[in-house]
Write a structure and sequence with these properties.
By secondary structure, the protein is of the alpha+beta class. Helix content is 31%, strand content 38%.
Protein backbone atom coordinates (compact mmCIF):
# COMPACT_ATOMS: atom_id res chain seq x y z
CA UNK A 1 0.00 0.00 0.00
CA UNK A 2 1.46 3.33 -1.06
CA UNK A 3 0.79 6.52 0.81
CA UNK A 4 -0.68 9.46 -1.05
CA UNK A 5 1.68 12.39 -1.40
CA UNK A 6 1.18 15.06 1.22
CA UNK A 7 0.86 18.58 -0.24
CA UNK A 8 3.24 21.14 1.24
CA UNK A 9 2.05 24.68 1.93
CA UNK A 10 4.70 27.41 1.79
CA UNK A 11 4.68 31.18 2.13
CA UNK A 12 7.27 33.19 0.27
CA UNK A 13 8.04 36.44 -1.43
CA UNK A 14 7.43 37.50 -5.01
CA UNK A 15 7.08 34.41 -7.20
CA UNK A 16 6.89 35.26 -10.90
CA UNK A 17 6.56 31.60 -11.92
CA UNK A 18 3.59 31.13 -9.56
CA UNK A 19 2.02 34.36 -10.77
CA UNK A 20 2.27 33.26 -14.40
CA UNK A 21 0.87 29.80 -13.63
CA UNK A 22 -2.08 31.21 -11.68
CA UNK A 23 -2.78 33.66 -14.50
CA UNK A 24 -2.82 30.82 -17.06
CA UNK A 25 -5.05 28.62 -14.89
CA UNK A 26 -7.56 31.38 -14.06
CA UNK A 27 -7.63 32.61 -17.65
CA UNK A 28 -8.48 29.11 -18.88
CA UNK A 29 -11.17 28.72 -16.20
CA UNK A 30 -12.69 32.16 -16.92
CA UNK A 31 -12.74 31.59 -20.67
CA UNK A 32 -14.40 28.18 -20.24
CA UNK A 33 -17.01 29.60 -17.86
CA UNK A 34 -17.89 32.64 -19.99
CA UNK A 35 -17.20 31.50 -23.54
CA UNK A 36 -15.30 34.76 -24.07
CA UNK A 37 -11.58 34.70 -24.73
CA UNK A 38 -9.23 37.30 -23.34
CA UNK A 39 -7.91 39.56 -26.06
CA UNK A 40 -4.38 40.73 -26.30
CA UNK A 41 -3.10 43.38 -23.98
CA UNK A 42 -2.35 46.75 -25.50
CA UNK A 43 -0.63 49.96 -24.54
CA UNK A 44 -0.62 53.65 -25.36
CA UNK A 45 2.60 55.59 -24.79
CA UNK A 46 3.75 59.21 -25.17
CA UNK A 47 7.44 60.16 -25.15
CA UNK A 48 9.04 63.58 -25.39
CA UNK A 49 11.75 64.72 -27.83
CA UNK A 50 14.40 63.15 -25.58
CA UNK A 51 12.62 59.79 -25.58
CA UNK A 52 11.55 60.20 -21.95
CA UNK A 53 8.15 58.89 -20.95
CA UNK A 54 5.47 61.57 -20.68
CA UNK A 55 2.71 59.08 -19.91
CA UNK A 56 1.18 55.78 -20.79
CA UNK A 57 -1.58 53.26 -20.35
CA UNK A 58 -1.82 49.48 -20.32
CA UNK A 59 -5.06 47.57 -20.83
CA UNK A 60 -6.55 44.31 -22.03
CA UNK A 61 -9.83 43.17 -23.47
CA UNK A 62 -12.18 40.37 -22.48
CA UNK A 63 -15.17 39.91 -24.72
CA UNK A 64 -16.72 43.35 -25.21
CA UNK A 65 -15.07 44.77 -22.07
CA UNK A 66 -11.81 46.73 -21.96
CA UNK A 67 -10.05 46.78 -18.61
CA UNK A 68 -7.52 49.54 -17.98
CA UNK A 69 -4.69 48.21 -15.84
CA UNK A 70 -2.50 51.29 -15.42
CA UNK A 71 -2.58 54.94 -16.53
CA UNK A 72 0.07 57.44 -15.51
CA UNK A 73 1.11 60.86 -16.79
CA UNK A 74 4.21 62.76 -15.74
CA UNK A 75 3.31 65.86 -13.72
CA UNK A 76 4.42 68.36 -16.40
CA UNK A 77 2.32 66.50 -19.01
CA UNK A 78 -0.92 66.71 -17.05
CA UNK A 79 -1.50 70.40 -17.79
CA UNK A 80 -1.21 69.63 -21.51
CA UNK A 81 -4.08 67.16 -21.48
CA UNK A 82 -2.01 64.05 -22.09
CA UNK A 83 -4.11 61.98 -19.70
CA UNK A 84 -7.28 62.66 -21.70
CA UNK A 85 -5.48 62.11 -25.01
CA UNK A 86 -4.03 58.78 -23.86
CA UNK A 87 -7.38 57.65 -22.49
CA UNK A 88 -9.21 58.62 -25.69
CA UNK A 89 -6.67 56.71 -27.78
CA UNK A 90 -7.21 53.63 -25.58
CA UNK A 91 -11.00 53.94 -25.92
CA UNK A 92 -10.68 54.12 -29.70
CA UNK A 93 -8.44 51.04 -29.71
CA UNK A 94 -10.88 49.21 -27.43
CA UNK A 95 -13.71 50.03 -29.83
CA UNK A 96 -11.61 48.81 -32.75
CA UNK A 97 -11.20 45.53 -30.86
CA UNK A 98 -14.97 45.16 -30.47
CA UNK A 99 -15.40 46.56 -26.97
CA UNK A 100 -18.47 48.57 -25.98
CA UNK A 101 -17.41 49.31 -22.38
CA UNK A 102 -14.29 50.34 -20.49
CA UNK A 103 -13.71 49.81 -16.76
CA UNK A 104 -11.00 51.26 -14.53
CA UNK A 105 -10.24 51.52 -10.83
CA UNK A 106 -8.49 54.42 -9.16
CA UNK A 107 -7.93 55.44 -5.57
CA UNK A 108 -9.70 58.45 -4.09
CA UNK A 109 -6.32 60.19 -3.78
CA UNK A 110 -5.56 59.56 -7.47
CA UNK A 111 -7.96 60.47 -10.26
CA UNK A 112 -11.68 59.65 -9.88
CA UNK A 113 -12.57 63.21 -10.93
CA UNK A 114 -10.41 62.93 -14.04
CA UNK A 115 -12.26 59.81 -15.20
CA UNK A 116 -15.64 61.35 -14.43
CA UNK A 117 -14.73 64.38 -16.59
CA UNK A 118 -13.98 61.89 -19.40
CA UNK A 119 -17.49 60.42 -19.17
CA UNK A 120 -16.90 57.56 -16.72
CA UNK A 121 -19.54 56.82 -14.08
CA UNK A 122 -18.73 55.45 -10.64
CA UNK A 123 -20.13 51.95 -10.13
CA UNK A 124 -18.53 50.87 -6.84
CA UNK A 125 -16.20 51.79 -3.99
CA UNK A 126 -14.08 49.57 -1.79
CA UNK A 127 -13.15 51.10 1.58
CA UNK A 128 -10.11 50.26 3.65
CA UNK A 129 -7.29 51.67 1.55
CA UNK A 130 -4.48 52.93 3.83
CA UNK A 131 -4.90 56.53 4.95
CA UNK A 132 -8.70 56.29 4.98
CA UNK A 133 -8.99 56.18 1.18
CA UNK A 134 -11.17 54.08 -1.11
CA UNK A 135 -10.73 52.19 -4.38
CA UNK A 136 -13.19 53.64 -6.90
CA UNK A 137 -14.44 51.60 -9.87
CA UNK A 138 -15.69 53.51 -12.92
CA UNK A 139 -17.34 52.41 -16.16
CA UNK A 140 -17.84 54.08 -19.52
CA UNK A 141 -20.03 52.84 -22.35
CA UNK A 142 -18.39 53.48 -25.70
CA UNK A 143 -20.31 55.01 -28.56
CA UNK A 144 -20.94 52.65 -31.47
Amino acid sequence: MTAEPTPILTIGGDDRELDERLDRELTAFNEAATGAAYGDSFSVKVVDDDGELVGGLTAYTWGALCLISLLWVREDGRAHGWGAKILKAAELEAGRRGCDRVIVSTYTFQAPGFYQRQGYAEISRVPGIPGGHEDVYLLKRLEA
